[in-house]
Amino acid sequence: MNSKISYRIEHNPAYASLILDVPANETVMVEASAMAAMDANLQMKSKMKGGLMKGIGRMLGGESLFINEFTAQGTSGELYISPGVPGDVQHYHVSKEISLMVQSSGFVACSPEVEIDTKFQGFKGFFSGESLFLIKATGNGDFWFSSYGAIVEIPVDGDYVVDTGYIVAFEDTLKYSVENIGGLSFKSLRTGIFGGEGLVCRFSGQGRLWIQSHNIVPLINFLNPFRPTKSN
Hints:
Low-confidence stretches: 51-63, 122-132, 184-196
Distance between the termini: 60 Å
Number of helices: 3
Number of domains: 1
Helix content: under 10%
CATH superfamily: Mitochondrial biogenesis AIM24
């Protein structure tokens, strides 16, 4: 389906940037700190979306999403957006019939017609290793999400299994459950390296699934011995 907002994705799949042509007097919602450059007629306003706040602890846990609103004043304006990690960007048109579930770090931008909410998934939301939350996009409009590495779209019809560290997004027509196949105990998950090792997500039904070509946790594990440490 065509986007209401003209856009192009450049330098994908490794270092993708999203360029939006915001129509006159229209608004787009963008991940906080993702704006790289913009025309001077774009006006920015910060706000928070997703879930009611019940204390700072829940905010730090990721239940709310900080975003910036960009509005083109008088004439159209071009907006350059760069996601936080090197990877790909994908466009999706959210409809009233199908909602999109996205890993908590995957949101890039959306049109104001899209409602964004963070849905606590408990242990089922243990995808990225960074939080227990998923973003749910509903409504009728444009939505862009990002990944670490390239994005691969998979049409699911039946059952499909994915390592949790590679899941980027999926349509809510798919049912899912997280299974432990590596013999890890809950204690080892709490005290060891997070990121889905030993955990897979089993999808069932019909719908589209997007996975990323790389998992950021092995990179973190590789770099960890090189990080600066204090000497006594």
